[in-house]
Design a protein that fits this description.
73 residues; mainly beta
């Protein structure tokens, strides 16, 4: 889950299976990569409006205010 100034963004991020850079925090904190690619995305506005779904989205890390992994069901 990522929160920007205007949206909540829910999506799947692909991480290496184990070892180097395999944690969610590693992907968010890497300074050499300014964008996070997401699949199966839902974007919900923080204000009025309807949620939208996209197969793929590239999220600019400069716009992220809060980020955390959601528990898998």
């Amino acid at each position: 889950m990522f929160e920007t100034d205007r949206h909540m963004v829910f999506g799947d991020i692909t991480l290496p299976p184990e070892g180097f850079q395999s944690r969610f925090s590693d992907a968010v904190n890497r300074s050499d990569i300014p964008f996070i690619p997401l699949v199966n995305v839902e974007i919900q506005p923080l204000g009025p409006g309807e949620a939208k779904r996209h197969d793929f989205l590239v999220l600019a890390k400069a716009h992220i205010r809060v980020a955390y992994p959601l528990e898998q069901e």
